[in-house]
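2024-03-11 09:14:02 INFO queue: dequeued item DUF262 domain-containing protein, len=752
2024-03-11 09:14:02 INFO validating residues
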Amino acid sequence: MELKGAEIRNLMELCNPMPKNGTENRKLNVLIPYYQRPYKWEETQIKNLFADYFKNEQKEYFVGSVVMVENHDGGFEIIDGQQRITTLFLLNYLKFIFLRAYIEELIIVKKVYKIDGYLSKLENTADNIFDEKIVDEIRKIHIEINDLLEKADEEKNEEQKEKLQDQVLKEYQITLGLPEKNLSDREKYLNQYRGKLSYYLAKNEFTLKYRRISYNEKMKEALQDCYIEISNAKNPKLVMKCKEDVDDPIVMQYKKSLIYEFEGLMENCRNEEEAPLNYTATLIETIEKMINMIRFCVVITGNEADAYTLFEVLNDRSLTIEDLDLTKNLLFKWYCNHTSEEENVKDKTIEKADQMWVEDIFSAMTRKEEAKLISFFAAEYFTADESQKFNDTARYRESIEKNYLQTRRSYEGVDLLNDIKIYYMIAITLKEMGFRYQKKAEKVIETETSGQKSITYRTLNLLNALKLYGVMPAIINFILKRYITLYEVGTTKEYDISRFTDYIKGLANDKENVMDEYKEIHDISYELWRYALLAKDSEIPRTIAKKYIVRNYVGNTDFEFKANIDVDLKGEFREWVYDWKYGSADAQLKAKVLFINLFENSKEHHLLRKLPARIQFNTKAVQLDHMEAEEPDTAAKEKYFEPCNPHETREMYVNSIGNFMIMDRDNNTKKTNFPLQDAMQVYDKMAPGHWMITEVKELLADDKFSKEVVIAGEPYRIPKEEFFNERKARLFSYFYALLQRGLHESESNIVD
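2024-03-11 09:14:37 INFO prediction written
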């Protein structure tokens, strides 16, 4: 690692060599890369900084780390810390505006003995805000003013003395970009002030610059509106023209930040009966001390890769918007370093991409898990990297750079925008597929019972609920590749987001799974739906998914491929069914899905046939129900099953899949904890004449699977161990037959 050093420093020391070794402070010279977001600190963050600093009794105050890369030209690129650095840069600018106005007022009220010292402060302040041109002008006017004041002091003629003092004011105002101070027409003066300051800033560069030219212009546009009214009669007042409905949001951000800084200063440094000009001097000294006392841990490297490594070490946390920005930054950086486009084109392209990223893809409304999914799916689409795991964001960036970006011959603006649009298209896919981030299982059940959505919609929601995140990219990649192949191949234009949205809506709502443009997507979705239900865990579905992912991603297309695996799925599924126990949320969800789909079939001997019309449940909430109650009614224990073997527990049988049926919530509430014979009346009302209910009745009536007892003079049937075992075996055969059926097949054979 090319680490140049790390030291605790303030803003003025930021760009000193490492180690400093007694050298004088170097002028601030920092660059904010193209790919970094604009300044974003809000009132709370700024006011908290002021409050914490003053609570610390204005002593040395540490505010975190800054990571920078030293360029060959002596400038420093900020990798981490630009929000804090910009906040202090703006505070230093506020100090400059204070000093500029304060010195003007000192000249007007002829407090000449203070002017020399404050002109020196103005020089030093400007040195870390502007390029050398302004600083040289201030140095020159400093010398000229001292000469003029010395002449005025020696001048015996009062009229000549006054002329020399007037000349001092005029020369100062011209050099510092100030209009003649006349507040009789306040609006006119403020307009003149803004015009002069705008011209003054336009001809100079800041020592904190953005690579994105438009951001520099927007910062200047905001700072030209900063006017501090100072007089010997009133306390300082900040006047800032802010119109949220007119100003650009980034311009407004800088303006509001200056307002919050001014307010933070005034709130924490109140006037204790000082004269206004003395109070102004106190405020200037307070800002100066604050800038000197606020410290960073400054880490400087010689290359960007090391800087990012350090950034991630210093900011170890789970996925946040800042982490997502690192991925965005990687794409922006690659574009800036590999495009042949002009600077103004780059600027517009990045602004467009950034707006899409912040407002359309990862907005304030984006849930944390949603952001994780989008980031993971995009990384899988770009790289097909089998080693990537959900939530391993650092790995995504490394893989995208190595396995995608480094394979490209060029990377122009349209390439960047289309790559950003891949993230956008994934976000749209999740939205149109109805993804939930809470109550996922309920969403799956609603979808399975409604019959109004495509198999692709159903599968993605099932995989999401089962947390099979590593399986979903097989479908997501297929969707993206199929759409791009159909509509975007051969074009040099940006992807059409509106057309893609319509495409995804059609895919989600193709409930018969018959539309030609979606055929391959539905086929792979159905295959993964089956594997998710057949497999006992994620291993087999993920293995199958990987085979599809590597054949359909940004670098490859193979819609004809069909995956095969040498695994005894029937044996694995049998093991899952026979070991199934009530309790696991994932196991319950899979059982519900199987029961719901089995319910949609008729049974004729050894044949399952899909019904022409779906079973309509009373409510969307379909639940797994113990047919024989889990908890017997103690007042009627003789009606309930008990195992014959004293070494076996009742739960072994009643919590196995052989004792379960699906039931809508309304009927389940009515059923409460009935024994099996009594429960059958409720099942009859829920689905009169359904073969699954009839079959349970037949088992209960068979002496092989149940026994008859007499209770209160009436015969009563109670299930035996054989009942639960037989039904478990039959359910396995039915479920397996169901899962062997093709997507468009309506029949399947039941095999023991």
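2024-03-11 09:14:37 INFO annotate: The chain has a mean pLDDT of 92.
2024-03-11 09:14:38 INFO item closed
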